[in-house]
Structures are given as structure tokens and as C-alpha cells.
Amino acid sequence: MPINIPRELPARETLKKEKIFVMDEDRARTQDIRPLNILILNLMPEKEKTELQLLRLLGNTPLQVNINFLRTATYQSKNVSNYHLDTFYTTFDMVKSRKFDGLIITGAPIEHLEFEEVSYWRELQEVMDWSVENVTSNLYICWGAQAALYHHYGIKKKSLPEKYFGVFNHDISLPTEKLVQGFNDHFLAPHSRHTTVSAEAIEKHPELTLLSKTDENSPFIILSNDRKNIMITGHLEYDATTLRDEYERDVKKGLDIAVPVNYFPNDDPEKTPPNSWRSHTHLLFSNWLNYYVYQETPYHWN
């Protein structure tokens, strides 16, 4: 089934070429189907790239999904046009009276700041607090996951001596959990971050389950025991070339950046990197939409 997105959204044509089933609002209104309403708070600087990455995944399930993009009112993005934001995004004040089936909060390149130093931190806290009563299931990615762990559960992030950068192996501690249904016992996923959270702190927290971590004991998928919040510290949504783009960007800036781990063939940046995490990414998003959103959300919100 399709995702329902605005007709003029730039990602639409790319999705159609990739055979992702998209639908505009006029056709969606003629179908007697209860679509899922998903809100995406996109904090990434290159918003159009992130839109496309997430829409690919949300459009690959049997469910009809309405997408609403949310931006911060307290910070103006410098990497996307005002026209794009005004046309395809809304602010929290415009949606806080509504109910949503799912909420995705992305990462953001602001790890060097303490949470309270982030210009839109109070706004983000308001969104997270609002989601407790107004959203069925929340999915937090990278910095968004660290923000949720801090805000909801009091778990602080900590700086790493060097960037955790590359494609890493992960295991699963609870293979019967529906979120990872169909996963291999070991799987690959990309990370790109300067901070982490303590696996021990998560494992000791009475409200959390550490569902997956890397071979280096770095937390990856964290699930709240009420199944309300899912925190993913890496970037399963990344394209095959996203880490390469980040690496080349940092090299051009003259930064002391290592080649991403286990990413380029033979660690050669001149070679094309493969996508070794795509199947598990689609599984996770499909499982989330089905088991944590569709199967749990009310047909009629009060």
C-alpha cells in the first residue's frame, strides 16, 4: 500500500522511479481505508535527503500512511529553502491538537552541545511530552534517541575519544521481540556519531530493554518496556553512499577523520561502498508500522 505525500514534494518523482507506491491526497480521499498518520520531526540539516530515506521505508509496507513533516519553530534551518519548509512542513503549534499513530524524531549534528544548550531543546521537550498521550508509538533516531533517553529516562550521553563511524556488527538479545522479527542473529548497520550512551545504564533501567548492541558493547536498539518508545542510536535509514558523503565532506574541511570502519571495499575510499544493511532496515520499519503502530493504535482517536 502507498504513502500519501504532497503532489509537489521533490522526493515524489524519485520514489516513483524506484517503484515505491506513492499516492496524492485526492486519490487517498477516495479510498475507504483508515490510513496511519505519521508525524516526522526532521532535525537533519539536509532535509530533502532525509525525507527521501524515510519515505522509501515507510512506503514499503501493506499499510496506507499519511505523512506530515514537522520543523522547529525556534530554529531556522540553513540548508533548505524557506519555500520548501513553508510548503511541506508545519510547526508543533499547528498539530498539537491532533492525535498521531506514529512519530519519528531524527538525528541532528549537534552532539557537541549539552541538551540544554540546544536552541530548540524546550520545544523538543514539549513535543516528547505531548507524544505520551497523543502518539501511539515513537521512533527516535541517533541524536534523537539520545535526547529521548535523557528526557524520558534520565540517561546521559557521553563523548567518545573518536568518532564512531562505519558499518558495525550487531547482535540481538531478545529475538522473540516483534520489532526484530525476521532479523538474523547478527546483522550490520551504520553509525556516525561522536557520543554514546551507557549499555550498563540501559540494562539497569527498570523501564528499558537493550534489544541490540554492537560487538563493542555500544547500544543500538533500545525499547521501552511499555513498547511506546523505540530508540535507535545508529542510522539504518542511511543510503549506501551517505557515510561516503560524510567522509568526503570532513576530508574537505581538513578534519582528522578516519575511513569509515567496514564500509569501503578493502577500506579503499575510491571504491563504491555496498549497502549491507538494507534488508534489516526494511524489516525494522515494517515491523514498527505493523506491530507497534497499526496493531496498537485506536481506529477512532477521541
Description:
It is a single chain. Strands 1, 2, 3, 4, 5, 6, 7, 8, 9, 10, 11 and 12 form a twelve-stranded mixed sheet that branches. This protein has helices at residues 11-17, 25-29, 47-58, 82-88, 92-95, 121-134, 143-153, 199-204, 242-252, 278-294; strands at 3-4, 22-23, 36-41, 65-70, 89-90, 100-105, 135-141, 157-172, 186-197, 208-214, 219-224, 229-232. Strand 4, helix 4 (82-88) and strand 5 form a beta-alpha-beta unit. It starts with a strand and ends in an 8-residue tail after the last helix. It has 302 residues and is of the alpha/beta class. It folds into two domains: 3-239 and 278-294, Class I glutamine amidotransferase (GATase) domain (Rossmann fold, 3-Layer(aba) Sandwich); 241-274, no CATH class. Its EC number is 2.3.1.31. It is an enzyme of class 2 (transferase).
Briefly say what this structure is.
The chain has 302 residues and is an alpha/beta fold.
Radius of gyration, taken over Cα atoms and rounded to an integer in Å: 19 Å
CATH superfamily descriptor of the largest domain: Class I glutamine amidotransferase (GATase) domain
CATH architecture of the largest domain: 3-Layer(aba) Sandwich
In one word, what is the shape? globular
Could you report the average pLDDT, rounded to the nearest whole number? 91
SS-based class = alpha/beta
How large is the count of helical segments? 10
Number of strands: 12
